[in-house]
Amino acid sequence: MDFNLQSELGAVGETLKTTAHELFSIWLAVQIAELGIAAAIGAAAAAVAQRRIDLTTLTMGWPAPLRLFVRLLVVNIGTLAFIVVITVMHAAMLSLTWPSRSYLLGVAASLATAWFVIALVAGLIRNRFVYRLVAISAWTIAALSILGLLQPTMAALDSIAVVIGGLRISPLLVIKTAVLLILALWLAAAAGDFLDKRVRSTPELTPSIQVLIVKVLRLLLITFAILITLSTVGIDLSALAFFSGAVGVGLGFGLQKIVSNLVSGIILLADKSIKPGDVISVGEHFGRVGNMGARYTSVDTRDGREYLIPNEDFITQRVANWTYSSDLVRLAVRFSTTYDSDPHTAIEAAVQTALSIERVIGKPAPQCMLTAFATTAIEYELWFWIKDPAAGIANVKSDVLLGLWDRLGERGVVIPKPGPARVIYELAREDEPDPPQDQSDTPRAPFRR
Prior knowledge:
Elements: H1 6-23, H2 27-52, H3 55-58, H4 64-75, H5 77-96, H6 103-122, H7 128-146, H8 150-159, E1 162-164, E2 167-169, H9 171-200, H10 207-232, H11 241-253, H12 256-271, E3 279-282, E4 285-292, E5 296-300, E6 306-310, H13 311-316, E7 319-321, E8 329-337, H14 343-356, E9 367-373, E10 378-386, H15 394-410, H16 420-430
Antiparallel strand pairs: 1-2, 3-4, 3-7, 4-5, 5-6, 8-10, 9-10
Helix pairs in contact: 1-8, 2-5, 5-6, 6-7, 7-9, 9-10, 10-12, 14-15
């Protein structure tokens, strides 16, 4: 390390000594009193402005940037009043006595002016963390420059360094890189949000392609922000070979799942097998696809839960996409009637019941089929179609069954009660596999790309 700080510390000490000699005089109390008066006037001006100025009424109908600027101006009106008063006092002191006797007033006026300008400019940043970072960094640099300490401070921070893999790292380099990197990433995020809105407002692109384009653009913007920051602070990218090798080893040993989920997410977006808004079932989860992230995909369920499923699961597991080519979904309910009930009446009543349910669509039309002459009852299966599976499946089945209960009763069709023989038959039937359904008479949903 290079600890040759004598020249820099000597310059700083000489500056502080000169400043102390000028300030510790009889005029120091006068300047402090004037600063107090100016601060009191500024506080009073700010209080009056907050009570008297109605920003909502004043800026109604103005453009958004102009409204924001006026709001920032009103918020900092106390600082502006302080600057005006202290500038007038400093000018009066310069005309009456030596400049050294008003040095504190000049420094205060310069610092307040720098803070006012920085507050107006940085106030346009809506991110609170970035706003504070920019405001504090800019004002610190301005304060050091006004006091004549900027160059000595930078030299002192740069004199302490350590060399790693051909890269010289000093506190000054770390501070500059951190500040510039945060600003660059914030600008990249802002640009990504702007492009996101533009891409999503393009109706020619499917939702999955929109998400893919936005994620690629964000990745490129972040990459450019990092490269530009490193080039700006003077870091040779070839010196980062050591760190890139370490990252490669980490990817090979400990980050396989992260990389797998990232690649799986890109595949899902590219082949459009799953897209935001689809109704899917994967494993034990059923719901609507929400956000498709780089590592996971969120599935919103009917019970208010939101499951974050790794993208790899959609590639390796069996996924049922209920709305892949069409949003039509066929549901089925089974019911039975006694042998003394007319099956034609039961079939007609079942179809009318399905059509009376609000969520059941009329085309394709519902169908009811007699499926078996059981030991104690005649069995039927009612097929009907819905086009909003995300709104729930069990609830629409419940509505159809309740409607069957009412309509069959009105038509004189009797639903058998489960006696002992019926219970034994049902238990035996549960162990048998379901017979294959004849799809020849089943109306198919229209194909949609």
